[in-house]
Predict the structure.
Amino acid sequence: MRWPSWTGPRVLRVHRSHWVARGFVTGGQRDGGRATLHLADGSTVPVSRWFLPQVRAAGLLSDAPPAAPRSVGRAQG
């Protein structure tokens, strides 16, 4: 497959229907098995499992797994 001429180190494909400019990404998160990137305009973009390694390698998403849910405590009864 031939990539468009405007692709390069500043643009990254993160999903089959989403490309992002690296400088426009303000953060990322994992929620369960889903990863998303937060953009400067306040929108979020999904990251597919296929492109997740490239997104991590670009430093746009932490390698840390999502936090485990906290236990609220045992109900007394």
About this structure: Residues 11-57 form one domain. The chain is about 10% helix and 35% strand. The longest helix spans residues 52-57.
